[in-house]
Amino acid sequence: MKALLKLSGIETWHGSICALKHVSLEVFQGQIAVLLGPNGAGKTTVLKTVMRSLYDQKRAQPEKGSIEFEGKRIDRLKTGEIVRRGIGCVPEGREIFPELTVRENILMGAYTRRGGKDIRADIETVYRYFPILRERKDRQAGYLSGGEQQLLAIARALMGRPKLLMLDEPSLGLSPMMTREIFEIIRSINLQEGMTVLVIEQNANIALQYAHYVFLLENGRVVHAGKPEVMKRDKRVREAYLGSSDNSSP
C-alpha cells in the first residue's frame, strides 16, 4: 500500500537553527495519524513545511529531503497549488476571519472551487457535522466561543474537499468536553467520508484514543512510531506523556 503523504529525510532550518532533523514519516490512506510531542519539538514545523507556509522563501535556508503526496513531489510547489492537490489545513490558533459571519468563513474554504450547486451541498454537509454552526451562521465569527471557532476552522477546511486534512493542536485552550467532541467529529469525518487525517497534538491521552498510528517527535526528530496500543505499553511514552510508569492501559 502506497503512502498518501510521505516525508523523506526532511531538514527544515529556521535561521541558524535546524528545526527538523532528517524527519521521515508516512501517512496512509484512511488513517487518523497523530504527530505527538512536547512544546518546541517541531510538530507545527512539520505541518508548515508540508504546506510551504513557514518562511519568506528569500530568507529561508534550503531544506533537504522530499515530500510526496499521492506519489508526486510537492515540496517545490506553492501553498495554493498544494491546497489544490488536496491537502487541507487547520492551523494552530484557528485563524478565522473575525469580522465575517460564520457562513462567510465557511465559504472562504471553497475559494479554489467552482460550481455553486456542489458548494451549497457541501455547506449542508458541514452543517450536518457541526449543527451549532448552522445556528450561528449569521453571527460574526469573532463572537464565537473558542470551541465554536475551532469547529468553524475545521468546517472551513472541509469545504476544500481535501483528501488529507491536517490539524494543528485542535485541543489547544479547550475544555476536556469540547476536546472530546472535536475528536469525535474527526473520527466521524474519517469514517463517513473516508478522509485521511493528520493531527498534530501534545495531549497524548486523547490522541492515543483516536489514532490509528502515532509518530513521536522530540527535538526535531521522529524518535518513536507505532500503533497506539504499542505506544501505550512503552514505558518511556507512559512516563513522559501519560503520567504513568506501569504497563496497564490508561
Properties at a glance:
250 residues, globular, 6-stranded mixed sheet, alpha/beta, single chain, 4-stranded antiparallel sheet
Shape annotation: globular
Report the C-alpha radius of gyration, rounded.
18 Å
Helix and strand string, N-terminal first?
EEEHEEHEHHHHEHEHEEHH
Q: What's the oligomerization state?
A: single chain
Ends distance: 31 Å
Number of strands: 10
- Secondary-structure-based class equals alpha/beta
Spatial order of the strands in the main sheet? Answer: 6-7-8-3-9-10
Q: Give the DSSP E fraction (strand runs of 2 or more residues).
A: 25-35%
Question: Unreliable segments (pLDDT under 50, ≥5 consecutive)?
Answer: 58-62
Largest sheet: 6 strands, mixed
Give the proportion of residues in helices.
25-40%
**How many helices does DSSP assign?**
10
In terms of topology, how is this protein built?
Elements: E1 3-14, E2 17-28, E3 32-36, H1 43-51, E4 64-69, E5 72-73, H2 79-85, E6 87-90, H3 102-108, H4 116-129, H5 131-135, H6 146-158, E7 164-168, H7 176-193, E8 196-201, H8 204-210, E9 213-218, E10 221-226, H9 228-233, H10 235-242
Parallel strand pairs: 3-8, 3-9, 6-7, 7-8
Antiparallel strand pairs: 1-2, 1-4, 4-5, 9-10
Helix pairs in contact: 3-6
Describe the structure in your own words:
The chain is of the alpha/beta class and 250 residues long. The protein has a domain at 96-161. It has helices at 43-51, 79-85, 102-108, 116-129, 131-135, 146-158, 176-193, 204-210, 228-233, 235-242; strands at 3-14, 17-28, 32-36, 64-69, 72-73, 87-90, 164-168, 196-201, 213-218, 221-226. The strands form two sheets. It has a six-stranded mixed β-sheet, sandwiched between helices. The protein has a four-stranded antiparallel β-sheet with strand order 2-1-4-5, covered by helices on one side. Helix 3 (102-108) runs parallel beside helix 6.
